Amino acid sequence: MMQEYSQHLENFYPPAQSWSRRVPSPPRLNVPPTLDLKSSPGITVAPGEEYDFASTGFSNTDFLGAFTYADCITGQETRDWKYTNRWDAQRILPFLYLGPVSAARSRAFLEGNGITMVLAVRDTKTAAARLLASNVAAEMNLAYATVDTAGNQELIAAFPRGIDTINAHLSAVYHQSRGRDTAASPGRVLVFCESGNTRSAAMVVAYIMAMFSMSVIRAILLVQSQRFAVAFDDDMKLMLQTYDSILSAKREVLHTARQDSGRQSNGSLAEYMSTSNVSRKPSKRTLDDSDDALDCDGDRGMNGRQTDEKREGAAPFRDDAGY
């Protein structure tokens, strides 16, 4: 009886739109397969001469202008990738390498590639057990830094700290080398985690998005083109997409603030915010102020404007029975 009644409802009251029985979830971020990036100029890192790295909102970016980025893509093909390559580190940018912990413990790799700092992106439990320590880096007197989080979801808050750590080291090495007879060099950083395919890879993607104003899909493609073993799940992609939106908002705030103030494009977002009225917190509103702002008397809406029109929603079902 109940089955017949349910069939009756479905026949006479069909859904007005397609329904899904799965748990609600955000839309997936589809990243296309990695292609030959040398034939895709929209993916390669090639900032123009007019590109202002200070407009990214991060400090210590002066060294970035010393590089020629046209040849930073190695252009390796998928068929050249071997499974054992996942245990090695790959160059993503002229000064930035990505790999597993085994690369951070390889003296041959660190010396052969001129690594000056190793940055470990660790889980707090791994950090407590000291599982990602690099005794070789300590023996070679290399700079060693860590970014520890309780889980992958906390990475979005740790991205700025990791980016600042990389820039601070490379900028310091760059200024030290400028006083020598040799050509100025900012050094090189190896970013690693246990596998080199998740947390550390996300940190490198975030760095590229922040420093080169690159979209999340382009940044992921750039990293995967150099290290094919990189694999992000949907949660990690969504987190990187969220950070991309945060970076875009920060750049827009900085751009608008500089236009309003008439300043030149120099200095970081932090420097500007510390000296401008933007950083000053407004005074707390009183109860009377809140009542004035949220005037809902009569037919007025939340903004105090007349709202005579009525909102028309979409019915979840259609009435085909004609009742």
Q: Can you describe this structure?
A:
- There is one protein chain.
- The chain has 323 residues and is α/β, with parallel strands linked by helices.
- Helix content is 38%, strand content 9%.
- The chain is built from eleven helices and five strands; from the N terminus they run αββααβααβαβααααα.
- The chain has helices at 2-12, 101-104, 107-112, 124-129, 135-139, 155-178, 199-212, 216-226, 234-261, 269-275, 287-293; strands spanning 90-93, 96-100, 117-123, 143-149, 189-193.
- It has a five-stranded mixed sheet with strand order 1-2-5-3-4.
- β1 (90-93) and β2 form a beta hairpin.
- α6 crosses α7 (199-212), α7 crosses α8 (216-226) and α7 (199-212) packs parallel to α9 (234-261).
- It starts with a helix and ends in a 30-residue tail after the last helix.
- The mean pLDDT is 77.
Q: Spans of 5+ residues with little confidence (pLDDT < 50)?
A: none
Q: Give me the number of helical elements.
A: 11
Q: Over the alpha carbons, how many angstroms does the gyration radius reach?
A: 26 Å
| Main sheet: strands, sense, barrel | 5 strands, mixed
* Strands side by side in the biggest sheet: 1-2-5-3-4
- The pLDDT mean sits at 77
Please give the share of residues in helix: 25-40%
Structural class: alpha/beta
| Total strands | 5
Portion in beta strands: 5-15%
Distance between the termini: 22 Å
Shape: elongated
Order of helices and strands: HEEHHEHHEHEHHHHH
